[in-house]
Design goal:
This protein has about 200 residues and is of the alpha+beta class. The chain has 6 helices and 6 strands, in the order αβαβββαββααα. About 35% of the residues lie in helices and about 20% in strands.
Length: about 200
Amino acid sequence: MARFRNTLPKEFRTLYTFGVEVEFIINFKIADFITAINTESFHHPAKWKLLRAVYEHVINEMQSNGFLVNTYLQNHNDPSYWTVKPAASIATEEFDVAKDEWGGCPVRLVAPVMTYGSPSFDLINNVLIFLNQQFDIVVNASCSLNVHVGNIAADKDEAAGSKDLQSLGFSLTTVENLLSFIWLFQLQLQEIHPPSRIS
C-alpha cells in the first residue's frame, strides 16, 4: 500500500487534481516483437514498428490486468485512463534490429486525472508494481517524473468521488504568481534537476 498522509485540509484534497508522468525504459527481446516489422505500412521504419509493438504490448498487458488504458496513439485520450506513449526525451542505447538480441523502448506513462487521496496513491503504486513485475524496466539520468496539478470544476463535496473531473484552470493571479516564483528562483530550481533534464 502506498504511503499517504492526510495532512492537507479537505478543501485542498477535493478541489485540486493531480496526475503524474513517469518515464522509464523497457528492455525487450527483439525476437519477441520481430513479426511487427513485416506488418503495417511500408512508410514507417522497422525500428518504429518494433517500438510500436512494445507499446501496444504494454497497453494490452495493463488492460488484461484490469487497468483502464487508452489505445495507443489515438486522437482523443480519455483523461480518466492511463496513457502509454513514446518518450523522445529519454536517451537509450542504439540497437540494430537485425543484429542485436535486446532493444530499449523509451516509455512515458501518463496517469489519469486523480484527486488527492489514498485510493489515487494506491492505484499509482499498483501500476508501478505491476510494470516492474511484468517487464525489465530501467531508468537513467534522462528519465523523469513529472507531476501536474489541476483545479477541478466539480462541486467540492462531490469531487472526490467524481469520475469526470473537468478542469477549471487557475486564475490569472495564481498563474502570474507561479511564473514570478519560477523566474525568481530559476537557478535554485535548476539545481534540483539533473543536468540531463535542463534545456
